Structure formats: structure tokens, C-alpha cells
Amino acid sequence: MKAGKLRKLSAAMLLSLTLAVPMTGGCSAAADKPENLVHMQPTYRDVLVADVKNDNGAPRQLRMNVFVPPKAEGQKVPVLVFVHGGGWAKGTYEGEDAQQKAADPAQGDNNSLMMNDNNSSYKIFKDVLNHGIAFVSVDYRLNNEATFPAQIYDVKAAVRFVRAHAAEYGLDADRIAIAGTSAGAHLAAELAVTSGNKALEGDEGGNLEYSSNVKACVDYYGPTNLLTMAPEMDPTLEAPDKAAETHDSVRANESILLGFTGEGQGIGTLRKIDEAGDASSPYWNMVEMAKLASPVYQVTKDAPPFFIAHGGHDSLVPIQQSLSLQKALTDAGVENIFMCNSLAPHGYQGEDTNQAMMRWLCRQLGVTY
């Protein structure tokens, strides 16, 4: 289904349920919480996950913030690992908590985005704390620091670290889910569908005796096929020449992510080589790298359940990216839900979507909504 067709439908929420495995049961409404835990500070702040290096040899430390909600004594808490967005080019694991970090604890920070923006993706996912799920926001090298697969190595290192230190933090190593938005959703999905793929595991941070697999994945409007972003964009949302500049040129974040930014290069060049099936091209290895970095090509029957959300008015990541991932999951027999707010942009997806996501996530992790 094309984005343009979705836009002709009503503004009401469109829900597509494609379940290869029947979903039963549900989450009952929880009692009101005495405190909104989305405003809590990290239980463990700036935790060092790994010492790595950027492509230029400069040292880089990967860190995470760990938030553990109040729990019954002796109870292990399930975990949501959150991967921030930002086009692989910006963003931080601290999210809006970075603004509170510098605030005077006695006075607070009344101007903090964390306090005023109820629609931020970071805050939407941090709400898992109010449902008895730990929230772990993780770090990764940006595309101006290192090229792929460094980013997926970093995120997998974070999941292994969480599992290795689960007992120390009071977490349940057997109930870990992952979520992300935009570029973060790309990495979350890539991790979820490549469990056991040694080419994408890396050894950053060690803990290699621990698995990086997850029980569930939430993908909010993430890229899934790096080769096809530009031609899949609805021209009524972004003009073709602008889409080509955004996604196909040497300046595109996807091109920078792959390190394919020399003269005459860029994702558009790789797509032409792939469409021609030209394995003799000196750039064929880059075509293969682009596919290795694209979740839609990596789906197997062993992938965990997915919740995918994508807005019908997304002018940055084509909705077809999510539809293609949904089809790949369904074809592989993997349980999945796709939900679309027909008027949502690349960003806030609406409360219906967010509440459905949270209810689904609670069920996947075995907690009450």
C-alpha cells in the first residue's frame, strides 16, 4: 500500500493486525500511580558499557542510563532498551534527562522539555516505568564518528551488558525488549532480526557469553531498506528532487552511515548497481553492506514479535519502509502488528497508537498494563 493511498482515507486511526501467531488475552487497567515515574532521574546514570574507537582512532565511551521502577522485594523487573533517533547523526542516550541533569535539584527546571513536552518520543517510551518495566536508554556511535556496522555493534553491546548485569540492577535477563524511533528504530529492528548473526554482533564491551536477543521489538517509523528511501517517498509529501537529495546523494545520512560519500557515490548509485544486478561493479560490496544494514533483508522466522507504527504524513521516512518490513515478517511467520495514524508526521503518532503500543509491550513482557 502506498502512502498516497493512506492519505485518502479518513483521519481516523487505521489499524492493521497481521498475526502469524494468534494473540490472546490482554492487560487489565492498572490502578492510578501515586507518582508519574516518567520524571524520575536515573537509578544508575552514565553507566560505562564499553570503550570503543571512532573510525579516526579517537577514543569513545559508550554509556547508558538505567531507570529501575519501584518493585516488590525480590522481584525481577523486565526491561525496555530504548535507542534514540536523529538520522544516525545526532541525539544522545540522555534524551530530555540531559536537561534535568544540569538543573538545581532543589529548584527544578521549569523550562525543561521533559516537563513540558508530553509528546516527545523519549518520554513516551520512558512511560514504561509507570507499568513496572525498567527503562534503559543506550548510546551508539553516530555516522560522523564511525560507519556501519559500528552502530549495531554498539547497540548489541548494550543489550549484552544489560543481560550480564541484570542481577546487579534487579532486572530480569529473560524479559528484555527493544524500541526505537526513526534511526533508533532502524537499529532496534536490525538487532531484533539478526540474533545470532556473527557478522553483526561485534565484540564491543565483551560479555560475549551473553545473548543480545530480545523478546519483542517496537519500531516507530524506522528505515528498513536503505536502498529504496528516495523512490518510495510520496511525491505529495516530498518532491522527488528533494527526496533524492535527502536519501540518495553523497550528503544523505544513509550514504554517510555506509561511508559511501566519494565523488559519484551515494545511495542512489548503489541502488542502480543493485537494480542492474552488476556484481562486477567495484561497489558491489557496498550494495551488500547496504542490504546487511537493512532489516527487511535480514528477517528470519526466529525474529521476535514486532509492533510497527508509521504515520501516513511522514515526509522523511516513507511509510512503505514499514509496510515492507511488515510483509517480510508476515512471510516469515513472525507475529507482528502494524498501526498507522493516517495524519501523523515523522514524529508523534497519537495517543491511540502510543497506548496500543504500551498495552502490547506490557503483554509481551508479562506485566499488567
What does this structure look like?
The protein has a nine-stranded mixed β-sheet, sandwiched between helices. The chain is an alpha/beta fold and 369 residues long. The protein has helices spanning 3-7, 97-101, 113-116, 121-126, 150-164, 166-169, 183-193, 229-232, 240-247, 253-258, 267-276, 284-292, 295-298, 319-331, 351-365; strands at residues 13-18, 44-53, 59-67, 77-83, 134-138, 171-181, 216-220, 306-309, 336-341. The protein has 15 helices and nine strands. Helix content is 32%, strand content 17%. The longest helix has 15 residues, at 150-164. α14 links the parallel β8 (306-309) and β9 (336-341). It folds into two domains: 3-225 and 298-365, Rossmann fold, CATH 3.40.50.1820; 233-293, no CATH class. α5 (150-164) packs across α7 and α11 crosses α12. Residues 1-31 and 104-118 have low confidence and may be disordered. It comes from Selenomonas ruminantium. One of its GO terms (molecular function) is hydrolase activity.
Give a quick set of tags describing it.
2 domains; Rossmann fold; alpha/beta; 32% helix; globular; 17% strand; disordered N terminus; 9 strands; 369 residues; nine-stranded mixed sheet
